[in-house]
């Protein structure tokens, strides 16, 4: 795939993305922050890091490469967005070289990457890579959405990125599992393409990041407690088992108040709903990813999957490292999909 010419702002975002990737951050570019379906703003870069076993840092980065960047205003805006989203840090990248801009940012706990820094970033080639840009990936997804895949895959991808801001919890974990399932079903049905394989890798990276964040406060717990947390989270979502059972009981009570008791077996209805939750085979995936060894690797596994999702020279699942193949195999087993249909070598 030929490299695509980017606008000045897009190029700056890509170079900053590569810069932060080289520093060890998990980086996602161009995320829409929305509320009830209404787009509010874009987050140019979202950074996620794991400074220690019990702490995580999420950072929104605002990138403005205009001749009149209004840097002070961007500091206000970016700091406010950080507070609204509940993130830990924020950064402003600007062409403005005035020293007082950095001083103002530091006073308000905003890191400013000024015009001097951005100029050095523009003039060096040390961060060039053989990665696809975000624009190239989106074009590829859109192309296959119209062709082989069908459905609005681009919209699903944009929503999945947004959930890193809005649902970095077990509701997000389950959203990414649903996205992984959709791609696995496409692949197992014979629709294996660059787009499907790339989305498999990227959605898997999102799933691992969401899981890593969801269990960060349980790193000191015993393994059985972590396994139970993950299993219940996948079954019942962020509300958890206790709250879900409470909602079921309240719903049943509400039905009883409006319908004649003799017409319906409410005990059977409640039992069926609980059976649907229990039918989600989350124990194996929780047992594997909840182990101390794997829990410590969630972040690095996500970084590796993200890298393979954007590598210009795409590798098939069979060509990945064994530990990455194990994750894909685990997800196949979770959805009862024959892993042989996924872990196959295909011609790029």
TrEMBL record:
Organism domain of life: Bacteria
Entry protein name: Restriction endonuclease
The organism of origin for this protein: Vibrio xiamenensis
